[in-house]
From TrEMBL:
GO terms for molecular function: hydrolase activity. Keywords: Hydrolase. It comes from Cytobacillus depressus. This is NUDIX domain-containing protein. Its cofactor is Mg(2+). Residues 5-132 form the Nudix hydrolase domain. PROSITE patterns: NUDIX, NUDIX_BOX.
Amino acid sequence: MTQNGIVLVVSVSILKDNEVLIIKENKPFAINKWNFPSGRIENKEDILHAACREVKEETGFDVKLTGTTGIYNFISSSNHQVILFHFIGELTGGSLKLEENEIVDSKWIRLSELMNLPYQKLRDANVIKQIVNRLLNEKIHSLAIFNEPLKGEVLNED
C-alpha cells in the first residue's frame, strides 16, 4: 500500500532448525536479489494478516507469527520511502511453491551465512543486515504492540 508516497511493507523471517528461508526475487528493481518473503500491505488490511498472506503467496507456506524485530524506515532500491514491519514466523503448514514470475529461487541459510552475503546480492541490504543482526542478538519484541489495546483503553469502532 502507498500512502502519501510512502510504501507500507511487511516481511517475515521464517526460522527452522537454526536457518532462515530467503527467496530470490525477479522484480524490476530486484532482479536476482535475495530477500525475506515480503510485500505491500493492502488497503485496510491488518498488518499481521498481510505478513502471513505475503508468505503464503510467495512461498506456499503457512506461518504463525511469533515476534517482531521492529519497524524500519528507508529509501528502497526503487527510490521509494518504505516503512517495513518485520516479523518472525514459524512454519505451520503448506509446502514450498514459489510465486511464478516474481520469485525464482529459495533456500534455507544460517543467519551467520546470510550476514556474510555480499551487499549486491541482497535487496535493500542495509535493512536485511539490520534484521539479521537483531535476530542473531535475539532482539525480538512481542506482537502485542501491534494489536492489543492498553488496559482500560476504549476502542472507537467508526
